[in-house]
Write a structure and sequence with these properties.
Length: 501
């Protein structure tokens, strides 16, 4: 018997450090790391110790003998990864703390944000015995993307929040919630108060798409839908109006697109026991979406979603999942390897886009680019295809889901082209390339909106390594009397309350 890693895998590599036989790959020093949907266990060398299952924060690791029928494919997917790899791969070189760590006195670090990147940054910093961390978040609830970006029915992935809780309750951690950096406190004040400031602010905007009609009523961001069904405080309860909506068209085919498609076609009774917002559940009970069309500009071999997200659509008996395209599209899907995202669609019926249907369905329309959104007082159709071969499909709601993009943080240099905070390997830089002393960035704000929750772990550790190296290279300043200095600079008592809460 061996263990297998299944669809819940968050890729944070917690399992790697506890495996006694080096049978879990790719590791952070291997080229595939961060490029595969999952980590994989080699059944040829697994000794069934179960240490990896105990370490996994999202319960993604299961003995092969206990895989459910829906999960059984993961035994083959894990094994397939090793079909052309050696049985006894080389061990990664051990990582040791930089010698500079011993030279550090007490350090105070501010982390802006409380999402996964912020959590992993704090985890790395708190390994230093004389470190303290203060989290700042403009929201009054911690979690960031892990709280407000994960679909409510993804119960396994949402367990990562329990894993994070221990850091937020750590005795060397302080929380300043409901405090917006750039409004309630500025970057200059933070840099004076702390030895270092780390921005983990994610990416809160949509990537732009320049087609006519996207500004029509009934055309909204899939990001808004995600916030709506997760109860994000920035998203109003009436931000998504499903009244009279029978057909939805989603532009884009990443995991956010598939999450929205799944929730909009779900049986509300199946969602009632989840953390879905009450207003979203009430709207889904009152209205009924009959069809969701997922537009993918390229073919199935380039699918942007993960296999596990696609498989979650197929495991529901009351919703059909079909493919719109040519017989060549089906042939391409059939030829894909088991781990390929769109391989989950093998065996799906081939239909005409816009064809009549009796059951609720999700339609994957590969090779169909959106050309325009049409309507008078609101959306009523989408023109898809190419300039030479296009057709219009009826729809009442259009969701834009082609990826996220960062937004500028006040007082911090921002790269408009990449949508990230200016940085070199996590060190924030000015536009002329000079370093901003004591300022760092992690996560999507550092590298762009790519990768899932666990991909932030290695990213954060690399930034913390740079931070520690920099602090050790200069004489640590003495801790200032924060309350005395703040009181002297504040104009009113209210200023003190806002800044020091």
């Amino acid at each position: 018997m061996a263990f297998a890693i299944t669809q819940n895998c968050c890729n944070d590599a917690s399992c790697l450090s506890v495996c006694p036989v080096n049978c879990i790959h790719p590791t952070p020093d291997e080229p595939d790391f961060g490029k595969t949907e999952l980590l994989y266990i080699d059944p040829r060398s697994c000794i069934d110790c179960g240490a990896c299952a105990d370490a996994c924060p999202v319960d993604a690791i299961t003995p092969v003998s206990r895989l459910t029928p829906e999960q059984s494919i993961y035994a083959d997917i894990n094994a397939d990864y090793y079909k052309d790899k050696p049985t006894d791969p080389a061990w990664a070189r051990p990582r040791f703390p930089a010698p500079a760590v011993s030279e550090l006195r007490k350090i105070d670090v501010a982390i802006i944000g409380t999402g996964p990147a912020a959590y992993y940054t704090a985890q790395a910093l708190l390994r230093l015995p004389r470190s303290r961390v203060t989290f700042y978040d403009r929201l009054k609830t911690v979690g960031g993307l892990a709280r407000y970006g994960v679909a409510p029915d993804h119960l396994g992935t949402r367990r990562i929040n329990e894993h994070f809780r221990s850091i937020f309750a750590h005795p060397r951690v302080s929380m300043k919630l409901g405090v917006e950096v750039g409004v309630d406190i500025d970057q200059q004040t933070l840099s004076e108060r702390y030895d270092a400031v780390v921005y983990a602010v994610g990416a809160e905007n949509d990537r732009p798409l320049d087609i006519p009609g996207l500004d029509l009523p009934g055309s909204i961001s899939a990001r808004t839908v995600v916030g709506w069904y997760n109860g994000h405080p920035d998203v109003a309860a009436d931000a998504v109006d499903l009244t009279g909506v029978r057909s939805v068209t989603i532009i884009g085919n990443g995991n956010v697109a598939l999450d929205a498609a799944r929730i909009l076609t779900a049986d509300p009774d199946d969602l009632a026991s989840t953390s879905i917002s009450p207003h979203a559940l009430a709207a889904l009970r009152k209205n009924r979406v009959e069809e969701v069309v997922v537009l993918a500009r390229r073919g199935p071999e380039f699918a942007a979603f993960t296999r596990s997200e696609c498989k979650a659509l197929l495991d529901r008996p009351h919703v059909d999942v079909v493919v719109a395209g040519s017989p060549e599209t089906v042939s391409t899907i059939d030829a894909l390897p088991p781990a390929a995202p769109a391989s989950a669609l093998r065996g799906a019926d081939l239909v005409e886009l816009g064809s009549p249907h009796s059951a609720r369905r999700i339609v994957f329309a590969f090779g169909r680019a959106p050309l325009a959104v049409h309507g008078d007082n609101g959306v009523d159709s989408v023109l898809v295809g190419t300039e030479d071969d296009s057709r219009s499909i009826s729809t009442e709601l259009v969701l834009l889901a082609i990826g996220y993009r960062g937004t500028p943080s006040a007082g911090v240099p921002f790269d408009e082209h990449s949508g990230t905070i200016n940085n070199v390997d996590g060190r924030v830089t000015n536009h002329d390339g000079t370093l901003v002393a004591g300022c760092y960035v992690v996560g999507w704000a550092k590298r762009g909106a790519t990768g899932g929750i666990g991909d932030n772990k290695v990213d954060a550790e690399l930034t913390v390594d740079a931070l520690v190296e920099d602090l050790a290279a200069r004489s640590p300043r003495r801790t200032r009397d924060w309350h005395r200095r703040l009181s002297a600079s504040a104009k009113t008592l209210e200023d003190v309350v806002i800044l020091d809460r």
